[in-house]
Structures are given as structure tokens and as C-alpha cells.
């Protein structure tokens, strides 16, 4: 099969950037992400990106997700080079909730979560005062089956959520995230904040509108109230940008929730969400929100050397269950 026939089978092409790289969409994911496909061997992605940065940024602004496929990205060092060109200042994973390994210079492993579990759609660190604008993933080892990083345009999610629900969050002051540290579930407060001194953590909290309460040695509760709907910092578009459904107790798989309830009250769960005024968000409301995400999500199979660049304010991401080895790296900033 000729290259052009193979390309047309795999990618629905919208236009061509140059003789080296074509641009289009995947057959299995025809609306997101926009794909830049390398047509020649060993093309250096960092250099190509540097020469075409404005075009890529324009597409990122429009679509929210850009996939680079077939470029010469084969190692952590290759990915680090791309990150240094595409993210001006990498961010640390402060207030993190999921296990990941900090490799070097703002490069982390993707969440190290049991492979048989799905990671629900979310915008990275939506609950902090300065979330990362960009997220970039790199697949170094593709799983045998599954393991897709599903993505969704949260502008479309907002349009799918009943207006009464949106107005209820606005009327009740947004949403509140409560996290409990030190009860044997989830990370320690020191791990989550990357700080060992509780007074340092309290000072950090005071600076970022985060209430930190020390119950006893190692037992800490944090609370923060955030908007459910934000304006995109560049475009000004309204976006459904939060972790409301992601951390609602109803999202837990039944076996995990049952195990937690053996030892904890709901208020003692490692995480929970409610309305900004502290009132309960009922399960039916969460189900409406969850369906809005699932109805809009798209996914594609990772290939080794794939690099996925996301506008964190426009596109949420997650992870499907998988079998086999899977190594995906991530940077944010």
C-alpha cells in the first residue's frame, strides 16, 4: 500500500502544512484532536514545532487538543526537549491527589493508578488558584489494549448540562472540595503539597484561598471553594472547569466506597465535593454532569512516539483501563 493510501485510511486530512507534515483528524476521532502527521522519517519535533509554533497555537486555541504523530520522539530526553519548547514554565504537582513519579525538570509519569480502573475526565488541578494552561503527554510504551487518554471539549460539556444545574452552582457559591489527609486513604498531606512542615502548608493555604485545619499530628483537613464555570483566560469563553463529579463520593467504585464506609464517615472520606455553601450535591445531579462528559468524550489508541498537547482550560482528559505495559509521560505549565 502506498503511503498516501495508508494515510487516507488512517487520517481524514483537512489540509497540509508542508511536504513534511500533514494535518487532519483520525477516523476514530473525527472532531478532536487535530493531528499533525509526520510524513518523513526522523523529523525533529522540537525544531519543527519551533518553526511552526504560531500555527500550532492557533489550532490549539481553536480545537483545544493537538496530536503529533510519527515524529522522532523516543525517550524521556526527547520529550524533555519538546516540553522546553512548548511550555515556557513547567509547573510542580502541588495539591496533587494521585500517585505519579517526578522524573526530572517538570516531567512526571502519568497517574500510576491500577490498570483495571478508569480515571474519570477532569481538567488538571482545576481546584487550585493558578491551574496549568497546557498539558502535554508523550507515549513511550503503548499498552497492549485500551489505555486511551480520553478527552472532551468542556465548552461542549457546559452546553449539555441543564441550565438549572449550572445556575444552582452559581447561586450556591460554586463548589467546595474537602480533603482529609492521614486516615490511611490517599496521599499524606506532605506528599500532596511537597512540604514537610505543617506551618509551611498553612502559609501556602493562606496565600491561595485554601483553608488548612490540623486535627492532630498527621491528620489534616483542607477546604476550598471554587467556581463551577470559569472564563477561559485567553478567549473569555465560558467553560465547565472543575472536579465536581470527579471527586463526588458517588464516583467511587462500589467496592472501594464500601471499604471506606467500614472505617470512615462520608465527611471523613479522602475527598468529597458539595455546593459552595456546604450543601449536598445529590447523586442525580452528578449523574447528569457525568453523562454530559461521556456524551462528548472522544478517544484514540496511543502509538509509541505520540505527543498530545492540550489546552487545559478547554479540554478535560482521563484514562481508560488497559492491559500490558503502558508508559506515558506528562508535563504541565
TrEMBL record:
The keyword Cytoplasm does not apply. It comes from Colwellia psychrerythraea. Its cofactor is Fe(2+). One of its GO terms (molecular function) is 2-oxoglutarate-dependent dioxygenase activity. Residues 40-331 form the TauD/TfdA-like domain. SUPFAM superfamilies: Clavaminate synthase-like. It comes from the Bacteria. The keyword Oxidoreductase applies. One of its GO terms (biological process) is antibiotic biosynthetic process. Gene3D superfamilies: Clavaminate synthase-like. Keywords: Antibiotic biosynthesis, Dioxygenase, Oxidoreductase. This is Taurine catabolism dioxygenase TauD/TfdA.
